[in-house]
Amino acid sequence: MTKPNTTGLIEKLNSFFILLSVFFLPTYIFRFNISAYPSNLQEVLIFVSSLIFLVKIIGERKVYSTIKNLRKHWIISTFIILSTISILTTDIIQQTYFLRHLKFIFFASVLALIFLESFTEEHTQKKAINIMGLGAVATGVFSLIYNILGYGVTQDLRLSGPFESAVILSYYLTPFFIYFSIEFFENIKKKHNLLLAIILGLLIILTRSMGSIVGAFLVIVIYLLKKSSLSILKNKISKTALIIATILILFSAIYVKIVPALTSKNTSLGEREQIWKTSAYLLKEPTTVIWGLGLGQFEEYYRTESVKVLGQAPLDFNNPHPHNIFFLFIFEYGLLGLFFIIACMYRTIKLINNSFDISELKIVVAFMLLYFFLHGMIDSPFFKNDMTFLMILFLEIALKRKGKK
Description:
By secondary structure, the chain is an all-alpha fold. It folds into 3 domains: 1-71; 74-118 and 265-405, no CATH class; 121-263, no CATH class. Helix content is 71%, strand content 2%. The protein has 16 helices and 2 strands. It has helices at residues 4-23, 41-59, 63-68, 74-89, 95-118, 122-148, 166-186, 191-207, 210-226, 236-263, 268-282, 286-291, 298-310, 325-353, 360-375, 387-398, and strands at 31-34, 37-40. Strands 1-2 form a two-stranded antiparallel ribbon.
């Protein structure tokens, strides 16, 4: 058994490197090779965190109990089981995409596991999520400076920073905008939460991602109508104002996204129509419905099948995901994957709707998940270095079987 002083040091190092990993979650953009292995800074941080965690549990003689706890972390276990079934039942036609998705799931599951095993109390988990949120603010500000300096500037001048697209950035920022907003509404004396929410809100607006803007607004409105303890929101006038604001936001989204699609197919909505049409065609194959296409295989199938389905070249051949969360999970994992994500949605909505005696953290995280599900109807980049971890972690925290006050 390790000495008390050594144990305390390892404990502190373990917490520090986990928090470092989650604060710098988007550091996968810093890519390099370790010999012949393609890696990135995020993977290195997770690897170091894992080594320290391993030393910690060996010193505490908790290796076996940690492995047993995988049964308690049923979201992580389910992703592992579904991925194993997918590997055994599907043909891999694009090895690179397959390995990339396998890495996403592996590193996300490892980080989520050591996070949950290290921060077992809700107050420590909440502190860690606060740090994750500060990391999101730092990432957004860095992205803004990056674009202002002339790097990675898009033709439509949307805030995207060093990321693949503005949507990828907004998808990462929005859950934490919701988090800090709700934290402020729950305790309006903590003005720093309002400041952080405003910063993130402005950054999200600069991405001009209507999915993020509308999704975040709807989640906040649902929260205010159902959960907020603010007395001003308990009268009919305030609720009516919120409903009117919601209608205006929705009409704005229709004007910006849907109306242009009626006159031109060369729009983001037109591209999604092509993707969904091809996806529906792929599901005509019974084996695809049952087992899926395989981990990360959608992009290759879309590239080879879209011309035949559409009768012309698509607007973009490179689409790593089908822009719909239901399509995504059935293509990755088949019917089992579809049932899994539907069950997660059902339990999340049930949690929000029946939140009596449920801990504050679970409720806040449930609203963050609600955003994922809403935006997931039109964008589904959940199998990425950062988003896979966030989805697994949030599902674990919100849908944990225990957690009542």
